[in-house]
Amino acid sequence: MAGFDKVVGSYAEAMEGLEDGMTVIAGGFGLCGIPENLIAEIKNKGTRDLTIVSNNCGVDGFGLGILLEDKQVKKMISSYVGENAMFEQQLLNGELEVELTPQGTLAEKMRAAGAGIPAFYTATGVGTPVAEGKDTREFNGREYLLEESIQGDFAIVKGWKADRYGNVMYRHTAQNFNPMAATAGKITVVEVEELVDVGELEPSQIHTPGIYVNRLIVGSFEKRIEKRTVSDS
């Protein structure tokens, strides 16, 4: 069964084939469940003019934010960008193109791509700047706008456990965008905390089946907390 083994031995091998100008879909929400080591490898490779599709762009100095330091990102498609001063500055300076997308629409753009659906109608964004230039249609007396799905040249994903065949589990809220992102890449790369024996994961526990995964690597993670809140007592 060697041909089904998705495990690679290095981050360089995991991101082999990434080139300037490609589109990369990244899982995670804030700093929760982000593929931090795969992002670091993109920075190390120096790949430029990238379109990054993710809920947000990390923070200054961590997550996707590190790709802004050397201006490797040409365009950001995301739903929230409020935690990154460098992002704001590059946007205001005209150095970064930004396409703000409602969060649920962004998730569906990924899911639809994975399901082979090129576009879909949604009521979200009707009558707002989000709808500018998009086709609209009325269903049952309500107006909807047409949104195109997004497929990435690469999808980078953070999992909790996986077997060598690429069957992946996510831990709690780290599911966020990761399951949708995993389906939407021409090449999907998953980094996980733990590699388990084939058969150890119950089928009902698997969130992303191995058929979606091209490469798998085991890493260690910093897991920063984006905003720490504590009580006085």
From TrEMBL:
<dbReference type="Pfam" id="PF01144">
    <property type="entry name" value="CoA_trans"/>
</dbReference>
<comment type="similarity">
    <text>Belongs to the 3-oxoacid CoA-transferase subunit A family.</text>
</comment>
<keyword id="KW-0808">Transferase</keyword>
<dbReference type="InterPro" id="IPR037171">
    <property type="entry name" value="NagB/RpiA_transferase-like"/>
</dbReference>
<protein>
    <submittedName>
        <fullName>CoA transferase subunit A</fullName>
    </submittedName>
</protein>
<dbReference type="InterPro" id="IPR004165">
    <property type="entry name" value="CoA_trans_fam_I"/>
</dbReference>
<dbReference type="InterPro" id="IPR012792">
    <property type="entry name" value="3-oxoacid_CoA-transf_A"/>
</dbReference>
<dbReference type="InterPro" id="IPR004163">
    <property type="entry name" value="CoA_transf_BS"/>
</dbReference>
<dbReference type="GO" id="GO:0016740">
    <property type="term" value="F:transferase activity"/>
</dbReference>
